[in-house]
């Protein structure tokens, strides 16, 4: 086994799975990308549970005909907030947790390009998520669907504060996403370790790279749509007022120009995680690396050409329908390429069926089902029959839960040892997987049949005798089982943080750089920046036979910590960044106050709707002062 010099010794790990200072203030002021990734993870998991509770209440209401668990008005708020929470507050931020934690580690960097901007993006996300979520406790949550179709969201049809919170909240969350996207693009382009060419980057980093471009190209469209709606609601403009000559399809085009790339923003990170998990537990390099990269890029490109397949029922005409139908069929090709390459990666491999591997294989199976029904929607005649029925609900849940969530859960099991230095329970993980797999199919597969029988989406109750009863009851029982399965995950996650079996640096025998450093990593990641000459640097050093025919990293080319050479978690003194002479950015509270300034400034708009202009101006100006002051202090203070 090839090894390099003895590993440097690092400062002791805290009970929360981090190095350095601990305590509430250290988390408020942190600019360490790993801690910010951890904050994203915990916050997004909280919102995932909130979204699951909302779904559970809806399925309780729909379990039997003519139920009265909640009112129609509350049901509207629940399905709106369930979609908004899962898309913007759970799946996207769960992906962002991995972006933050892994990208610098995978490319051999000590941090992201803009650490303070990174912290700012998290605080904007947290405060924006609370802003849009808390109103449901006062029965004033958004109630027009996560897609917010205008003109139904204009003052004429939605006169309360409900839509105001949605419009403002999404604008705030968009700021967080764009700040993070520019940061990660800059990080990946400029901070890769020597020898880490684009075509040597791990697949998760590649898919994350594609996603950042999707974010900066897609979010301006929904930003424009929301600005128009905001002006209609607060300042009396008429961008969506049909009586004033507005096009009723304007909102749909602007929203879905964002909305369909958003699907790939949600799924590509999960694809990247699966592409890390499968090679490790198959003990084989990823099959067709180059093609996997190109297919990910092609998915991103074609994703901007399919938005109007959400609009086949609006009467765009034969030419438009044909074009969007064709592109929708084409995008299935690069997606199918990934599925076949994952299968080829496992073929003849030495497969270990860990919990992470089971979730990765589960993604392949469930996403394939969602992809097949997606191809069905590419046909305008078929889609016209299926649109706004539960068939569509089944389709996008197989894509987003069967795809994104299964991949993310696999990623959590896979990277938990790196983040905490401990393994999650494989026994509980296996129970979690099989219960989730069964419950997911029990919940969503019957919706195909209820949809084909004509059950419309977004109805809060239904009469008996229409053939929907058994399918709704099955879906509701599946949801209950899904909630139970998720509770097992929560128990496993929280218990394993302090009580799980201790993990070495390279917990699974993986191939990429993040597994060459201590678990959890020190604040500076790498004591010495590695030099990389292949896609599988750790396998090159430990198991060169596994990467035969691929250019290898030599022992002299890369500094690693051999997980077998230095016992982890020894009670020894570990070196700090200061002792090693590594400059690190100072912790600071300024990004938090800048984010708070944005929230306060936008919150003033609510009082305009309440006809309290003086209060609105005072709050808006106060927020602007806080924002500008924080930014000034941020930009004029030293970084290190």
3D structure, described in words:
The protein has 640 residues and is mostly helical. The chain has one domain (24-587): Cytochrome c oxidase-like, subunit I domain (Cytochrome C Oxidase, Chain A, Up-down Bundle). The protein has 18 helices and no strands. It has helices spanning 24-29, 33-62, 72-107, 115-133, 162-190, 203-235, 250-282, 289-302, 318-346, 355-377, 380-386, 390-420, 426-452, 469-499, 537-542, 577-580, 590-609, 613-636. It is globular. The two termini are 39 Å apart.
* CATH class value: Mainly Alpha
Q: Output the CATH topology.
A: Cytochrome C Oxidase, Chain A
| Shape, per Cα inertia axes | globular
Q: End-to-end distance, in Å?
A: 39 Å
- What's the CATH H-level homologous superfamily? Cytochrome c oxidase-like, subunit I domain
Q: Percentage of helical residues?
A: 55-70%
Number of strands: 0
Spell the H/E element sequence.
HHHHHHHHHHHHHHHHHH
Quaternary state of this entry equals: single chain
C-alpha Rg, in Å? 25 Å
Q: Largest sheet, if any?
A: none
Overall pLDDT: 90
CATH architecture label = Up-down Bundle
Q: Strand share of the residues? A: under 5%
How many domains, in number, for the residues? Answer: 1
As residue ranges, the low-confidence spans are 1-13, 15-19, 547-573
Question: Can you give keywords for this protein?
Answer:
single chain; 640 residues; Cytochrome C Oxidase, Chain A; 63% helix
Write the layout of secondary structure elements.
Layout: H1 24-29, H2 33-62, H3 72-107, H4 115-133, H5 162-190, H6 203-235, H7 250-282, H8 289-302, H9 318-346, H10 355-377, H11 380-386, H12 390-420, H13 426-452, H14 469-499, H15 537-542, H16 577-580, H17 590-609, H18 613-636
Helix pairs in contact: 2-3, 2-4, 2-14, 3-4, 3-5, 3-7, 3-12, 4-5, 4-17, 5-6, 5-17, 6-7, 6-8, 7-9, 7-10, 7-12, 8-9, 9-10, 10-12, 10-13, 12-13, 13-14, 17-18
